[in-house]
Each structure stands twice: as structure tokens, then as C-alpha cells.
Amino acid sequence: MNGSMTTKPLVAIITQRDSSNICRPVYMAEKQYEQWKYIKQNHNGNYYLTNLMRALYDLAACPGGRTHAAIQQKIFGPFIMQYSLAQADRIELIALKVDQSLVKVAAQTPALYRARWDSESESWQTQDEQNRNMDLTHQWKGAHTAAIPGKFEDKGEAGRVIGEHITKAYRAAFSASEVQAQGNHFSLFWMNNDFKDRAHVESIVSFIQQAKLKNTSVRWLVHGEGAGVFVEAVKYLSTQPQAGVLKGTASNLVKQSVFFSNPRGKDCREKQLEALCEKVGLNYVGTKVNDFDILFNGDARDKFTDKAISAGGVMGLSGVTGYFGYTALANGYDAVMAGSSIATTMVIGTSAYVLAKDKATTFGGYARNLPKVVSSALGKGNQQWH
Amino acid sequence: MLKRLFATRKHPCMPGLNTPEQITVNLSGSVLSLKLPPHYSSDGFEAHCDPIETMNIYDPTGYSGDPMGTAVFNRKRFISRAWELFGPLTRLRNIGSISFVAVVERIDSLPEGMSCFNPNHYEQVINRLIFKMGPENPTSAKRVAPVNWRTEVKNGCLWLYYEIHKAEDGDPESFAPSQFSSYAVTPLDDHHYIRLMFHNLGYKPAEYSNRFVNSVRDKVLGSVTLTLSEHAQQRKAEVQSQWPDAAISKQRQPYNWVYPEWRYGDTSKGERDVVITEYSTTPPEFHL
What is the pLDDT at residue A372? Predict the structure, then answer.
């Protein structure tokens, strides 16, 4: 089977009329056309469908007449899209299927959840129910709130901790007591600590686009390793042609605000985040950096090195081998982190500490900071915003 | 630092555990004092609510709650902080956390003539609260309560301790066995009481985690003393003389609840966000 369906009547569903970016129109069997129409009209209520539709437009916009004999398949949550690239001049969509068994319903399955304020326990509780879209009509102070958490043991912990971050991050917009009210919730996109899965990037792109399509204000709280995934999503928006019905959803996102809480990952320095947001018109609110998170956070690392340099300069140290040793390590972190396991990082972290402790008497302020760094890196974090 | 280096899952490290702060709170003349480890956040966020030294529990400002059901509870927070637990150095991130919250809670719908100073009435009040946090909170994981119910009279005050656990969810990977809340409650007057909460997000194995978080709880609770105001003591004596034989259960088994049917409400039409459409186990009623 070569995937071609030339014997059956085909209709064009994506053509250059949709967007000048389209290189290869997409055809599908006439009898499935209703299905496609439904998706096009209703994708906004289900982020998997937005993912699916965007993938199809992206394929159509992909330059070059690459051909492939075998049937291709992409899966978005419970939806399966099968298509053929057998013809150089067009893409043939063979089937759109739903298979609910593809979606796991285990407690920690990556999905969109809600964290709801529970006034009896005075805490945010993550609900077990998986949602297909954010409830954008649920707003506090004029915007829906959505969070992309980094590493946590489970979604329950993520909801509870991130809820606290939200009230701190957006304190200019609302007070904790205004938000901590029975019935309030925020959207929580739980990735179950898998920050490498491209599907999560796709989902975040869909959330941003859906909010834009509905012209709704959203406050994002992006935390820790979740920042790396969010950055990928924003990069996609800033580089990919947003064809078809998603036109206009990749720029001028000024109604959506972002706060980064202790971002970790590639391209997650404060200036990079700010520049990236500006590129797609996202309203950059701020970044909270734990200054002592030098192992994972580039900004904290730079700041720390600056402090170290000034301390060394003022004191006119001669025996600065320890300091240079440290700088080398600090500069090496990006490289190390790229492929490191926690164990590797750990070894470097402690050796830097041992190194400094040895020189503690001569290094003064610089060395006195090191235990804080190690504390932060090894988990003994700071107790307030520095 | 050494503690951190040698921490294990069996003997985790909790920063500040051995350097607690002495905290004294005056709640309309009744004085609560306790030793509490300092707030701790790896992400650098400050505590939710620093201890409020003096609070007028009769000032309605600041109370909030959920108006659902046949009983209405409102509460005002006076301490809220978090602690983190660390295990072996192979993991930089914390392995668990405890969030501690202290509130004054007010029951608004207690029938006339009932008082929290009557131990039997007080048990009914807490039963109603437990129901609200169980079947009347159906969107969250199902709960088992009360667990490890016990009572203690300390400095003349009746303290009641219990836990609310998550029901077994059938997932062998679940963290639920190490995620539970412990409560300590004691009356302040006819309609007000103190509720101290320990929300534990523990780690595996649950046996180690639970043992450790319980030791933290017991350490804190061991330091707690409450001295009722003169007015409260007088009122308590009156209630005691009115019902000299009233008693509270010394031991309790968890309820065997059947959760209600519910749906998400349409908040734009003035509905609650969660609407219970049909109770199975019905809410407990108050009996004078």
C-alpha cells in the first residue's frame, strides 16, 4: 500500500487560499470532510485538536516536495491522524480517528488539570479530572490564570506550591486574600516531569493560541524546568508560519502575561526570556530568580560570578587560584548541564564548595556566600526572595 | 550542613527543625504559644502568613469560608508557612514538604444553645467539618477520616487530634499513602476554635515519610500551650456545669462514606463552581 487514495473522490481542505505559506495542499476523502469541518470549527474546545490542526497546516506549509511511500501517523492525545506523503504535489489525509484508550487516566498522567482553592484546608488542591481546554471564562481580576510547573513529586504538590508562587508573582495585580477564595481555580499543565516531550510544547502552543482566538487575558506562571518547555513553545510561535484558521495567533499576544519563577533550562536567562516574549508580543511581567541557584540558573550564576569578582578585586587577593578555579567551573556549567545527570552536577557543586571553604579566610564576602550557593543547590534554599 | 550531607529517606533533613522560633499569639485574650521551625522555600518565596501576634477573633473582617451545605464555617488565618524535607544527596530537590497553617475557625450555623465548650457538641462540630472536607469536596481525591482520632486535656483545654487521608487509589506508584493532613483543634469559646493543620506531601516509602512528618507534628504539638482568656474560662465553667456529663469519643473509626453525585456549576449564572446533585451519605445533623 502506498497510501495514495487517487481512486476515491478527494476534496482539498487546505489550499493556498488558506495562507500564502501553503506549499502542498492537503486533500482528504470527501466522506470525511464533515469530520474535518467539525475539527476546524471546534478545535478551540480541545487542545489536542488544535495540536492536530496545527500539525496539518505545518505539514502543508513545509517547503519541498519530500515524498514517503509509507503511511505516516501522528498522535495527539486520543486523536490519530494518518496521512500520506506519497505524492510530491499534495498531502493526502487518510484518516482522523479517536482512540480513547490512548489517553491514560492514571493520577499523574501529563494533562491539563485544575488546582482549586480549598478554603477548609487553606490550600490549593489539584483536581484529578483531566480537562480538554482551559476554562478561560474563569477569571480573577480580569484574567484567567494558568501555570506550567517544573519538577515536583506529583501534581498535587505542583498545584499547592505553584498556587503560592502565583500570589507572590502577581502581587501587584491582586492580594492573596482576593485569590484564595472558595471556587477559584487556575489551570495547571502537568507534564509529570517529562520536559523533553515535544508533545508538551505543542500543547502549550495550543493553549496560547486558544486564548488568543478567544481574545482572553491570561496570566501565566511558568516555573523551573517548565520554562524550557514554554520557551520552546514561544520560539515555535515566533518562527513558524501560522497558517489557516490559526492566522494571527502567533503575534501581538499582549493580553497574555508571563511571570517566570526560578526558570531552568536552555535560553532561560532573564534577558532571553524578555526578548522572546517581546518577539511574539507577550506581556513580560518578570522573573524571580533564586540568586543562589547557580547550578541551574544562568542569571544567578552570572550574578554570583560578579560578586565574586568584586570581592576578589577589593581585597586584592593574590592567591586567587580558588577563585579562578571556581569561574572555570561556573563557565563550564552550561556545557555540563547540557548532558549531565544530577550526580555529575552534584560532584561539581560540592567540589566548588570544598574549594571555597578552604579559602574562606582569604575570600571574605565571596566565600561566605558559597555555603548559601551550595545550600541552594543541594536543596537548602533561601527563605525569602533575595 | 552535615545533617544535609548525611540525610537519608529514613532520616531526612528538615532545615530549621532544631532551631524553632518561639511564637506567641494573642487571640482576643486567649494566648497560644508554640515552637515552630522557620519557614523554608527552595524557590525563595517567603511565608504565606507570618505569625499575627494579636488577633481580634470577634472582628468579622478577614474571615472567609464556603457557604455550602447545612453548616457554615469561616476562618481567619494567623500563621501559614512551609517546611521542606531533604533526603540523600543524589537528589538536590526536596523529597517532601509540610505546610503548616493555623486558623481560628468559627461555626456560624450551630443551633442555639449548643457550645464548643460542651465536648459532645464539639465532636459534632468537628464531625460536620470533616464531612465538609470529605464528601462535600467531591472534586478532590476521595478521603478517609477521621484517622488516629485521640483527645488530650492540656492546661485545662480539650485538644482533639485527627488525620484525614487520601483513599487508596489503586495506583501502586501513587504518593497518596504519604500525603495526608493532621489536625489539632481546641475550643476558644462557644463558636470559635483553633485549628492547626499539617498538610504532608511525603515521599516513598510512606512508612519512613509518615514516621518523620508525624515526628515533626508531635514535636510542634508538644510545644503548644493555650491559656484561655478569663472570659473564655468563665464561659467554659458555665457550660461544664450545665452539661457535667458531656463527653467526647476517646476512639473513633473512619466514616464509611459514599460520595455524592456532583457536576461543575455555571458560575456565570450564580451557581457554585461545584454543585452536589445528590447526596448518598447525608451530612451529619446537630443534636442538642
Answer: 45
Lowest mean pLDDT among A201-210, A326-335, B103-112, B122-131: A326-335
Which of A203, A162, A174 shows the shortest CA–CA distance to A50? A203
Report d(CA A307, CA B39) in Å as an integer: 27
∠ CA A293-B49-B126, nearest 5°, is 125
Please tell me the distance from the alpha carbon of residue A150 to that of residue A128, in angstroms, as a whole number: 19
Please check the confidence at residue A301 and state whether its pLDDT lies above 60: no
Closest alpha carbon to B55 in B75, B85, B84: B75
Q: What is the pLDDT of residue B260?
A: 96
Q: At the topology level of CATH, where does A111-288 sit?
A: Rossmann fold (3.40.50)
Give ranges for CATH 3.30.2310 in chain A: 10-100
Chain A residues closer than 8 Å to B46 by CB? 168, 383-385
Counting Cα atoms < 13 Å in the Cβ hemisphere of B88 gives 7
Does B203 contact A153 at a Cβ distance shorter than 8 Å? yes
Rounded to an integer, what distance in angstroms lies between the CA atom of residue B113 and that of residue B115? 7
Nearest CA to A379 among B147, B61, B44?
A: B44
The verdict on a CB contact (< 8 Å) between B137 and A177 is no
**Rounded to 5 degrees, what are φ and ψ at B100?**
-110, 130
* A23: helix, strand or coil: coil
Second-level CATH architecture of A10-100: 2-Layer Sandwich (3.30)
List chain B residues with CB under 8 Å of A382. 41, 44
Asked if A130 reaches chain B (Cβ–Cβ under 8 Å), the answer is no
Taking only the tens place, the pLDDT of each residue in A229-262 is 999 999 999 988 777 788 888 888 999 999 999 9
Q: Which DSSP string do the residues of B41-82 spell out, in sequence order? A: -TT-PPPSBPPPSEE-TT--TT-EEE--SS--EEEEEEEEEE
- Cell matching residue A290: 533564586
Query: If you count them, how many residues does chain A have?
Result: 386
Q: What is the pLDDT of residue B69?
A: 64
Q: pLDDT band for position A103 (50/70/90)?
A: confident
Nearest to B169 among A107, A223, A290 (CB): A107
Domain span(s) for CATH 3.40.50 in chain A: 111-288
Q: Which one of A105, A108, A119, A120 makes the best mutation probe of the B interface by having the most chain B beta carbons within 10 Å? A: A120
**What is the residue type of B273?**
D
CA distances from A265 to A37, A147, A223, A296 (A): 39, 17, 11, 7
Cβ partners under 8 Å of residue A335, min gap 6: none
**A182 neighbourhood in chain B, CB within 8 Å:** 64-67
Q: Residue B44: which of A153, A160, A290 has the nearest Cβ?
A: A290
- Whose cell is 536543596? That residue is A379
* Helix pair angle (A270-280, A226-239), 10° resolution: 40
CB contacts, 8 Å: B273 with chain A: 116, 138, 183, 185
Q: What is the pLDDT of residues B232-287, one digit of tens each?
A: 999 999 999 999 999 999 999 999 999 999 998 887 788 888 899 999 999 999 99
Which residues of B fall within a CB distance of 8 Å from A379?
4, 42, 84, 86, 91-94
